[in-house]
Structure formats: C-alpha cells, structure tokens
Known about the structure:
The complex is a heterodimer of chains A (542) and B (168). Chain A has 542 residues and is α/β, with parallel strands linked by helices. Chain A has helices at 18-35, 45-65, 71-84, 86-116, 125-149, 152-166, 187-211, 224-240, 262-265, 267-273, 276-292, 317-321, 354-358, 382-395, 434-442, 463-471, 498-511, 519-533, and strands at residues 4-5, 257-258, 306-307, 327-331, 340-344, 375-376, 402-407, 421-426, 447-452, 488-492. Helix content of chain A is 49%, strand content 8%. Chain B has two domains: 1-30; 37-50 and 79-167, Immunoglobulin-like (Sandwich), CATH 2.60.40. Chain B has two helices and eleven strands. In chain B, strand 5 (82-88) and strand 6 form a beta hairpin. The N and C termini of chain B lie far apart (65 Å).
Amino acid sequence: MPSILLNPRASSVPRWLIPAERAVAGIEALFDRAFGSAENPLHQLGALSFYLFWIVAASGIYVYAFFDTSVAGAYRSVEALTHQQWYLGGVMRSLHRYGSDAFVLTMAAHLLREFVKGRWHGFRWFSWLTGVPLIWLVYASGLGGYWLVWDELAQFSVIATAEWLDWLPIFGEPIVHNFIGRGATTDRFFSLLIFLHIGIPLLLLLLMWIHIYRLSHARTNPTRQLGLAVFAALLLLSLFKPALSGGPANLDAVSSALDLDWIYMFAHPLMYLRSPGFLWVATAGFTLLLALLPLLPRPRPEPKAEVDLDHCNGCSRCFDDCPYVAITMVPRSDGAPHLRQAQVDPELCASCGICAGACPSSTPFRTQAQLKTGIDLPRNSVQALRAKLEAALEELAGAAPVVVFGCDHAVPVTALCATNTACISLPCAGMLPPSFVDYALRNGADGVLVTGCGAGNCNFRLGNQWLVERLEGKREPRLRPAVDRERVRVEWFDRHQGAELSGALAQFRAALPARPLAPEGREMFWKERRKTEEPGRDESSD
Amino acid sequence: MKTVLRYLAQAVLYGAFFAFVGYFSTSPRFEHLRPDEALIRISFSHAAQRVGECRERSDEELAKLAPNMRLRTVCPRERAPVLLEIDMDGKPLYKLTAQPTGLQKDGQSTVYRRLTVKSGQRHFAARLSDHSSGVIGYTKEFSIDLAPGKVMVLDFNAAQGGFIIHQG
C-alpha cells in the first residue's frame, strides 16, 4: 500500500542548511538515548534559559543585600560574602556566576538549534528578530556584574570595554579617562553600575517576554527532572569550585595574567589581538546578519489556514489550540446567530493544521460529499484527509489491519506501509481530529496508531500535547468514550527512530484483540458502502 | 541495566556541560602583559589654538547684526589639530595627529593610546603642537623606572603647564 503524504514539502529548512540540520539531529538523537525525548535538554533550551535567568536573579538579589556600593567597599564586601559566609553567600555568588555562564551557553545553543532548523523566517520572524537584542543584553548584564566585584578582572574588563566604546566618535570625553590613574573612579560609578546591573536584566526580562509573545502556552520552565538536575549540578560546581575574586583593582597597575571568563569576555582578547574597530565590525556584522536572516530567500510557505464561516460556530477551540496565536475571535460578520467567529492572521499562521484538528466540524461522520469544516488548510484539507483515509481503509487487507497517522516532521511513516498497514502523514499530529480515529476503527481498521515528533519536541510546539489530551478526553474535541482504547495507541518518535516505530507498531498489532470483521467481511463492508454512497452523499445535511 | 546506563550517560553529559562552564569561567589564563612589560597610557583632551586670528568687527558690521549678537571681537571656530610625538630612549615611540572634534572642528582633540613597552629605566621625550603652524609649543623630557606590570599615564593640561606624568 502506498503511503499518503499530505504535505510532502513540510520542511522549513533551506537546502543549504540540511547538512547542519542533520548533524544537529544526530546530536539530539544521542541525547534522546540518554535522557529520552521528553527530558532531552536540547528540546528545552529556551525554557532552560528562562530557568537559569531566575536562578541568576534570585542569587543576585541575595548577593546584592551584602554589596557595598562604593569604590572602597565593593571589593571588600564581595570578599567578605565569599569567605565569611562561604556556605551561603559564597554559594550564592557562585550560583550567580555559573548560572550566568550556563545561561549564555543555553542561549547560544538555542540560537544555533533554531537556526539550523530554519526557524528564522515566515511566521517565526518575530521571535527570531526579538531574540537578537537579547544577546547584547545578556552580555551587558554579565559584564556589568563582573565590574561590580572591582577586582583585577573587573578593571581589565571595564577598561577594555571603555576602549571599545571610545572607538565610536560619539563621546566628547573618552570614557576610558574615568578608569586610568588612582582616584579616577568614584563611588558614583558604582551607583551607576548597580543601576545598570539591575536595569539591564529587567529590560532583558521584558524582551524575553516579548520574544515569546507570539507563542501561546510558551514553555518557560524545563521539566521538573531537568530543572532539579541542572540546579544540583550548579550547586555542586559552586561547592567544588567557588567563584573567587582576583586581587583588588589597582588603576596604577596592570595584571600580566588574568583568569578570564571566556564565556563572557572572549571579545576582550579578540579586541587586543586585532583592534577595537575590528571588534565593532565583527559584533555589528554578526548582529546585522542575524537580524537580516529572515529576509533571505526561503522555502515557499504553505497556504495558510482559512475560516469557512458557514461551518464556524465561534466555539473558539481553534483559538485555544493555535500554538502561534494566529487566531483571534472577532464579532460575527455574517449575521449568523453566533456571537463570534474565528479570524486567521496569515502572517502568524504556521499551516500546522492544529486548528483544523480542534474544529468540531472536522468530523468524517458528516455525510456531505465535500466535507467542509470551520477552519481548514487549503492544501491539506480535512476533506482530503477523509478521502485518503477512506481510500486507505478500502485497500486494507490481511490480519489485524492498522491505520498509522504520522507527522511530516517525525519518522516518515512510508516505511510502515503494507497490505495490513495504511499510512497517512499529516503536517502535524495535532491536526488529527479524534473522530477520524473512531471513523477508521468503525470502517475496517482493527487499530489506529498515531505517531509524531518525539515527546517534548513537537515541531509546532503543542500538537502532541493537544492530540493526547483530545484522545484522553481531557480536551475538546474528545474521542468518543465508547471507542475501545485498546485499539488506539499514541507513540512519539523523532525522525531517527524509525526502527523504534516499527517495533511499536508490531507490538501494538500483536496486542490488538481479535475483531469479528474478518478480511473477507471487510471487503463486503466496503462493497456495500460503495453501493449506498456512490449515488451521491447528501450535500446539505451534516 | 538499561536504566542504569541511561542515568550514567546523563551524569556524563551534565558533568561535561558543567565542567565546560567551570573551566571556561576562569581558564585558560589570559596573558595580558608579559612578565617583563609595562604599560604606557597616553590620555588627554586638549582644545588647540584657533586656526585663524580673532578680529574686531567694524561699526557697520555690528549695525547689521541683531542687538543681542553685537559682539565686537569675532574669532574663527575651527581649531588646529594637536600633534604629538613621543620618543623613548632616543627613538620615536609614538606620533599622532589628533583632529579637533565637532562638525565645525571647534572641539577638543582627544588622545587615548595604550602602548606596551619593556620594563626598566626609560628616558622619554614628549612634544606637542597645538598651533596650525605646527610649531612645538610644549615639550617634556623625563626618565622613569617602569616596573613590570606598572602603568605610566602621560596626561596633558595646558593650564598646568603641559605634560603631566602619573605613575603608580
């Protein structure tokens, strides 16, 4: 039996990025083996960054309580905190530092992962673009924190940064003049630094919120297990290698060698190796490149979801389920006796079809010849899905026939196709209305297996979660309670887990209870059905 | 057994990540200066002489101006660039022409430069011109013992007589 790919051009990855995407997928596969897909840290990099931000913020508040905002007191107070209460203050300081370092790394990994997955264009441009200034803010926050310690490293970093800024011909008096020679730096500088070290992270938090503004149900917390493990690892690192200061800052001298934090300060040596101008070109160029990336040529977007008002009753299920807030509920415009109607913003629509899966009109049991639903994908319509399913069901033969609904972004289901296995791939597993499962079981399939991207790794964020909740009866539209749950299975596998999916299918088929409708009976059923339906389905009734 | 292996793999991956964090948060050491080097920072801002001479306006010229603009003496705004030359042990170490800031070139000339030199007893000669003719208006010769890792700041303040040396 041939596989049925509803959406063969699903990938948003440009051709030139495919090798990198495969390499990253390979690394993710390794992590999947160790953690499982649901706990894989690489699937939660954004959430991990949020989590680390809160660790850094909480530990920073504690450290600030003991900080003396003055030239003479800054170093002394941090030293006292580090050594006199190493068990709490010292640990907090270390958590503050290592959390910040880890934040940079998770942010960089998140950026790289989203880049190689082609998630920087189309409906995702906003999240991508608002992520770019976050990099600057993270570095500004981190460097400012290092300066507050006012040790040799702070002195080196503040002067290097001032020299870099002074390259711009916009400052009347060079900033670096404030840091050369004894007495050049005053207590007011530390007041300014504290203001910046609190203000910039607050701005960072605001921008992080804007960054996820176009995501509904944005995931800002990692799983409990991952969160606990990361915190425990940070704590261990803080205990085994506490963050320490260098010697106190002395503007009359320069330390010949420094224990540099390369994660935050790699740009300083680069500047001294080349020049401040070079560093400006490099940083500005990198920023521009990232910011302009969404304008590069990209795969043609899929046609966006469309609302059919004749079949929309304004129930707002699509609005609730859309992962990218592309749907709003607006006052009715067609005089129908409903208060509201769904409206799709094409700029935000991902063409995932989750809305079609949520629509109560998306049921194959409706007797229209042309199955219309309230909201649908023009290229991958619910009507097409029913037609494909019916064709597949009719061809099913052999023992324990199973329909497999797959996802274009997960394991290709083509490899599973057989005389007793029908394969239907959807743009997202979340597009599958539960009634299709019921329909398949009532029309010849002994079992229905639904598969999609690995747990916690749904390409459209929420498709897996919504589907499971619908099948479990926790979310509308629900799978009918009378459906035999033994005949329905959901398995999440990433693209590299083809063998696991085959195994899961074999296991599922073997466990299926026998059904009264033998293969011959199934053939009869379809013959009868054709006889009754061929003259034409009722065009008007539901 | 499989679960144990998975937990082991997780521990290794967590360990690798946080070992990376722990190591690169302080290592490798960055050698900013070699042990036998000292640093010279040349840092000052100075408003050089005007390029042209000031002149007195005639009564006719003043009469054409609004009452609040009738200043008798008028000077050209543009300033000359600052020329700076520094020799160390009789050899040229640094030479710079710093243009005045501002769109009208009427602001201060600003100089900032960091120079790494071998430590030890050094003799310096500094010369500065702030006149459009290029005539050297300020000079200073001095010897100094530059200890390793120390910073010497060469400042300039015309009101205080010219070059000022700070050393820690």
